[in-house]
# Entry
Amino acid sequence: MPKLDNREITKVDLPGFPKDDPAWVKMRKEPSANGLMQVEEAKLTNPNIGNTRIGFLLLADLIQEWNLTDAHGDLAQITPENVGTLPMKALVKLQEDVDFDEVKSLSKAKKKP
# Structure
């Protein structure tokens, strides 16, 4: 039987971390409707929310697992705040690996009469 959420999960090695202690995430390559609803809810509660914060929200929804730890050595929670602490090189890599083409095409199709 098919899985309800059959979006592909891929492992991404993150740049900006030591080679002897590499960082990685396992993430979905395309956002879910739930992830997009979280963005819409954030926009409703905070109309001045910036694109960067929206990006962190989406990435936190897409990331399913990572090997990053907090200051105590415990596995860090996947939250928009923690995503925002990643090095810029890592954030750029993650954004490049997300497939927003499908979302854009659906959005354009919806706007057509």
The chain has one domain: 9-100.
